[in-house]
Prior knowledge:
Helix 5 links the parallel strand 12 (244-249) and strand 13. It is globular and about 70 Å long. By secondary structure, the chain is an alpha+beta fold. Helix 5 crosses helix 6 (333-348) and helix 10 runs antiparallel to helix 11 (475-487). The protein has helices spanning 32-35, 103-125, 201-204, 219-224, 269-288, 333-348, 356-378, 418-436, 438-449, 458-473, 475-487; strands spanning 6-9, 42-49, 53-62, 65-77, 82-87, 140-141, 145-149, 155-164, 167-174, 180-185, 188-191, 244-249, 299-306, 310-314, 319-323, 385-386, 403-404. The chain is 32% helix and 21% strand. It folds into 3 domains: 6-87, Nuclear Transport Factor 2, Chain: A (Roll), CATH 3.10.450; 103-124 and 136-186, Nuclear Transport Factor 2, Chain: A (Roll), CATH 3.10.450; 191-487, Neutral Protease, domain 2, CATH 1.10.390.10. The chain is built from 11 helices and 17 strands. It has a 5-stranded antiparallel beta sheet.
Amino acid sequence: MSKRRKxxxxxxxxxxxxxxxxxxxSVAGAAPEAAKADPNGLKLVRTKTSLLGxxxxxxxxxxxxxxxxxxxxxxxxxxxxxxxxxxxxxxxxNLDVSTTVAPASATQxxxxxxxxxxxxxxxxxxxxxxxxxxxQPAATSGAAQxxxxxxxxxxxxxxxxxxxxxxxxxxxxxxxxxxxxxSKVISxxxxxxxxxxxxxxxxxxxxxxxxxxxxxxxDALFLAQKNVILRNLDGSGxxxxxxxxxxxxxxxxxxxxxxxxxxxxxxxKFEQVMSYYHINQTxxxxxxxxxxDVNNESQDISVDTYSGDNSFYDPSTDMIxxxxxxxxxxxxxxxxxxxxxxxxxxxxxxxxxxxxxxxAIGEGFGDYWAVTMSVPVSKGFNLPCVMDWDATSYTTDEPxxxxxxxxxxxxxxxxxxxHDDGEIWSNALWDIHQALGRAxxxxxxxxxxxxxxxxTSFAAAAQDTVQAARLLYGKAAAAQVTKAFQDRKILx
Length: 492
């Protein structure tokens, strides 16, 4: 049965009692705010404010340990109406949470499993008679943490996050038997990417013939560079500010006593400037839309520290990593914006992406966000094409695109791969953009995100988006949003 259980009740009525056979002393009948101090109940982990109200997110716990995937949310509208999302799992009251397996042993087991998984994935991607496979680097990880899995197979586990060529993987290792219960990639990845400016050289120069040439300085790329103002720096002489923190980078962090950061693209510090500028621009735009609580923080960024042609957002550390394979990913602003899109959704909805369709929504939103951020600077050139410059290193067709937001895909095309299925969602969002205009569409889309469940479905998220349109702009806007989702067969 789906975890999605929502109900609207009056603010003064409290929350409807839910019987799940849980061991909580504080359950749905108690005010969740009071439950945050209860080690056996709900722990308040985040409070967010949107245009239509406040949103309280709780982590389900058992004997002080987090329950994997167990959540509870209360959305309080400005008129006092309360909407509840209860995603808790039943945990037997007598579950023994003692451990037999040491954390170091669990970490070793998890890393071995993740390394093997990455090697299998690499072979699958490169299958063919002439392919030779290089040995994949071993996975590395941070500290293991104890947690509980609820449901019919409730148990205590070590939660281990590992970094490999696949990105960041969460492994759950049985704390008594030492077996790996689950290994799941939790980072949001894109494959390979690239270069430039505002947003990238292919778009600004409207030239599909440009190539990376192994990060070489080129006259054509120099002409594509644009002088910009770097706002909201903290004055430290580094690329740190209100909304961006370049935390680590290949070759060391860029520094300037005069806050002057001017480099050509062959210099690795160029990608640091790209990351700072384009993420800062994004957060300023979000705040111009009226949102003051959408990833309003100094986002940690790691630049060119991953040798593969891949970039990812790691929710376990709240860090975006940009790779340097092919075209350096942070040279293409659309790669930067895509990954920041994942950080946005993880900030608004803790643990977002638990289901396949939620993961596809994350990928689709990231692609859409890259395209909508390109609108003011692209002059209409190949707008629905995502990551034009980055894609020059791994595509031959023109225009060069990693993916598109106008494929015409519907739910008939679902294949279970989040990037592929994400094109269904991004197409719907792009149609909403075309129907409502950029500002209205993005207000609706961001507002709806506050009401998503971590394991939401296409249909449920679409309904949240229609409701946001109705409340913000009325029935006519809601009808246009509904049609966008109907065209993709997400809604009937």
